[in-house]
Design goal:
Elements (H helix, E strand, L loop, with lengths): L3 H10 L5 H4 L9 H4 L12 E5 L26 H14 L3 E5 L9 H10 L3 E6 L6 H10 L3 E5 L5 H7 L4 H14 L4 E6 L8 H10 L4 E5 L6 H4 L7 H20 L5 E5 L3 H13 L4 H11 L8 E4 L4 E3 L10 E2 L5 H6 L4 H7 L7 H5 L3 H4 L4 H8 L43 H4 L1
Parallel strand pairs: 1-2, 1-8, 2-3, 3-4, 4-5, 5-6, 6-7
Antiparallel strand pairs: 8-9, 9-10
Amino acid sequence: MFRLSQYMKALVAEVAPARSATAGTNGRDDMAGEAGRVSPGRGRKGPVVIWNLIRRCNLLCKHCYALSGNVDFPGELSFAQVCTVMDDLAAYGVPALILSGGEPLLRPDIFDISRRAKDMGFYVGLSTNGVLISEPVMEDLVAVGYDYVGISLDGIGEVHDAFRGMKGAFEKSLKALRLCRAHGVKAGVRFTMTADNAHQFEDMLKLVHDEGIEKFYFSHLVYAGRGNKNRMDDTAREKTRATMERLFELAYEDAAAGRSIEYVTGNNDADGVFLLLWVQRHFPEKAGRIRTLLERWGGNQSGVNVANIDNVGDVHPDTMWWHYTLGNVKTRPFSEIWEDTSDPVMAGLKQRPRPVKGRCAKCRFLSICNGNTRVRAMQLTGDPWAEDPACYLTDAEIGLPAPGPRLVVTPFRGRRKPARARVTGAEKA
């Protein structure tokens, strides 16, 4: 996750971004970066953990990395197993738990799990589509004391409804945001841009301002789950560049005006490099300092500072890596799985610089983006170290002497065999 507003505040006030902006995190959830501030363990050692406690979902989203549906999935962790894992995470120094799904509010014991996590001192976020947040449910959310609630809105009205597969979903999710604001619960909007909803980007910004929403999380599409099946819907690079330019302008204007709204982006670490290029054009005297801060941030942190545990206990480098499993918490503690670098992909993710290839290896900004999102390369080519096809920087911008061919995004033709076959927790259960 890239905390854009923190860098804009640094430009305006000439102060360093908060610690959370310089400790890079990635993944679906917009609360992961700020969650790095706290840890129930002795010092920070473990990553932020995004935990998919249930796979069942009341929606059918076009970009769902978990391939969730409105059915029960076998082998999910019991409450007792969740508690055992939670104890290990605390001892390992994991600072935060982002509770997700599917739709986490469909899990009957979600509030029991959340209260236990809060009592143990974790930063606890809830990642939800918001449809199920009614006034009675809101009372439970307030009682838990979530540090942050992230609610997805992928457009206005019928655009969001089509994206999410439910008529009326937009109004219900918007109502949830209003309930959070009325009850003093910090909440924000997640917006994943594709060719289907890019035309409503400005409308989304207006909604965020008009509704007094505290955070706007802009996510690029990742080729995972249904997002991989629908990867041809990804936004063209030129459109992405124009959108990011607009987002930079607005974030700077709000920072200069002292407005409190937070802008964050996720799932394309070229955003950090593009910001540096923007600063070089508009504030050249401050570019050196911003570059130092961006290198400290460090770009993509899959397998390093962000982790994922899925509904059956499989551990992944982050939420977008469900096709690649590192181990299962039913048979081995998370802390041991995360430290194990015998897996070649995990070893490569933890390596710095990462063993990327092609234009990524030649990029003069590798120290900032850290190779961007490896999942897209892996899904297209089977090689996790190939170039990220969604990098929207030009060859000239990244320092290549001459333009070269780019990896072309082709239609999904079936599931590619994983680079290293593993038995998943679902198969074990």
